[in-house]
Amino acid sequence: MKPSEINAKWKVLQERISTEFDSDFPDLKVMLFLIGVQELGKGPKKYSKRQKEELMHIATCRLLSEMGFYELEGLDQDGWPHWKLIKAIPPYTMLEQEMLMKSLVVSYFEDIYSAD
User: Fold this and answer.
1) d(C-alpha 72, C-alpha 102), whole Å
2) Which of 28, 34, 22 minimizes the C-alpha distance to 7?
3) Torsions phi, psi of 5, nearest 5?
4) Is 73 in a helix, a strand, or coil?
5) 43-62 tens-digit pLDDT
6) Could you read off the pLDDT of 75-103 as tens digits, one per residue?
7) For the chain, is the Cβ count within 10 Å smaller at the N or the C terminus?
């Protein structure tokens, strides 16, 4: 996808999530948190600051696994997924990182919403 396509789809996704959660437009961190909660599979609940950071890490690994950078190692005793880096991530610029993550988030939610 071109950056203009990614940004257009990103705005549409932000609007949809904002409406569904009756909240402000979510930024990338909020989207990663939502994906982390989805991937953890324990539903919405109160999470500590550390757990929120771990949820965003889970989401990042899950998204980057689509490009072959990570693979799921398994779940720990509490049911939290653990990922293993299997291929070095190129040194993307901040803008490239943001566009990459936005495109992966958009694809992730397109898969979820197309399953409805």
Assistant:
1) 21
2) 28
3) -65, -45
4) strand
5) 889 999 999 999 999 999 99
6) 999 999 999 999 999 999 999 999 999 99
7) C
82 three-state secondary structure:
strand
Residue 116's pLDDT band (cuts 50, 70, 90): low
- Report how far residue 113's alpha carbon sits from residue 116's, in angstroms, rounded to the nearest whole number: 5
The pTM of the full predicted model, rounded to 2 decimals, is: 0.92
Start-end of H helices in the chain: 3-20, 28-40, 49-65, 94-114
Output 6-15 pairs: Cβ under 8 A, ≥24 positions apart.
6/99, 6/102, 6/103, 6/106, 7/102, 9/106, 9/110, 10/102, 10/105, 10/106, 13/105, 13/106, 13/109
* Residue 63 · residue 105 · CB < 8 Å: yes
Distance (Å) of CA 36 to CA 50, 51, 52, 80, 101: 13, 10, 8, 10, 14
Residue 61: both structure tokens together:
């690994």
Tokens representing 23 are 């909240």
